Amino acid sequence: MNENDSNPDITTIRVKLSDDYQDIVIDWSAKESNEIHKSILEQLSAFTRIPSEKIHDLTFQKSSNGLPYPENPFMQFQPQNISRLHYYRNYCSRKMKDIRDHFFTDGDCFMLDSKLELTYDFDKICVYYVLTHQDLIDETACSADYCHHTCNRAFLDKQAEIVNSDFESYLLHQPRRLFPIPIDLEHLLDMETRKIEILADFNIGQYFDSYCRNSYHM
């Protein structure tokens, strides 16, 4: 990555898989925080080949370096000395100044873990990204936020292929099931069974629920 010491309006971070990477350029000269958020999502989508509107949750996480809240606004309610920047459905409540001054540092490198899920009504696919700073990654063991078996270009490309296919059209044409509110355990198990059946029909379950014992899904 190029160092941007000569241009304080530019920060470059790197997003990595085990065998690929993309540099993301953040231009702080933008007039609105939303412009920064949109640019990050668009550059990330270009790398993953998954449209930004499919992103349900996106989380960057890195060490807080011992800075407590409120000196570090990204440490609020966070355990284990971790700072988190969170996007929910393409929206981020953090202000541009806070992100610039207290979160991203030029040269930061984040490892990308992507997960697919079906929505509650089984009518859409949603995508979850967790980008963990490289300094927090165990090089030999998987964790809830990074799986060495799946965080590679081939796996991500298959996920992108599923998201960009007509699979959602199939989902939309399935009969909707009515469930009680609140949902009891019996209906939760029924929903999980139905999900497994749908994914098995297309032989894509392995791209939704990881086999890794330390994954998010176990």
Automatic annotation (TrEMBL):
Domain of life: Eukaryota
Protein name: Uncharacterized protein
Organism for this UniProt entry: Tetranychus urticae
Native organism taxonomy: Eukaryota, Metazoa, Ecdysozoa, Arthropoda, Chelicerata
